[in-house]
């Protein structure tokens, strides 16, 4: 079998694990929807963002959906490393890279399902983007790139952690980071210090790019940093994951 076929087999294995773990399915797909309902229904009228709050919040919640399933990915990767599965694969004719690639692709596909759920619920709540077909292609492309980058970084964190429990905790900063960005409220409404952090952290330009694409008017000042952050995170995560995997396996 080729390395590609090995990756497909690993992807099927990971999806079976996900579907047999209701908690991971809830965290990855349903929890972002619950958070969306909470912010739009309970808190939406409290924020003055210049547009309907559901239109403002949906791009940020799409990014939040990417992050919410990362803890399960980190835990699964670490479990493979610490519970002997990798050692079994070592004595078989299995591509070493397929193990990691399977986790990344499974994480990416889970993210896409969660984002589709967010967008669907958003339409039910009154979300009305003015994006063209080309803009929607840009949204999909950026979401895929972000999911790919976050997947590799999460795999690296899972490999680096000493136990499945610490692996899950290692992904918590990635889950919390969107809350300290422009996902929920504009950065200029935040207090001193937090405002500057929100403006210069990686997720804010990505969210603003998604927001611009969905409004049909993406700004180059957001698009370029967003792409640079995604590519940089993907590269760091990939190199870190392969290096750690080679040492530990």
Automatic annotation (TrEMBL):
UniProt GO molecular function: ABC-type transporter activity
InterPro entries: ABC2_TM, ABC2_TM_bact-type, ABC_2_transport, Nod_factor_ABC_transporter
PROSITE patterns in UniProt: ABC_TM2
GO cellular component term, pick one: ATP-binding cassette (ABC) transporter complex
One GO BP: response to antibiotic
Keyword hit for Membrane: yes
Cellular compartments annotated: Cell membrane; Membrane
Domain ABC transmembrane type-2 residues, every copy: 23-248
UniProt record similarity statement: Belongs to the ABC-2 integral membrane protein family.
PANTHER family on file: NODULATION PROTEIN J
Bilayer disposition of the protein: Multi-pass membrane protein
Domain of life: Bacteria
Record's protein name: Transport permease protein
Regions crossing the membrane: 21-44, 56-77, 98-124, 136-160, 167-187, 223-241
Main location: membrane
Pfam family, one: ABC2_membrane
Keyword vocabulary terms for this entry: Antibiotic resistance, Cell membrane, Membrane, Transmembrane, Transmembrane helix, Transport
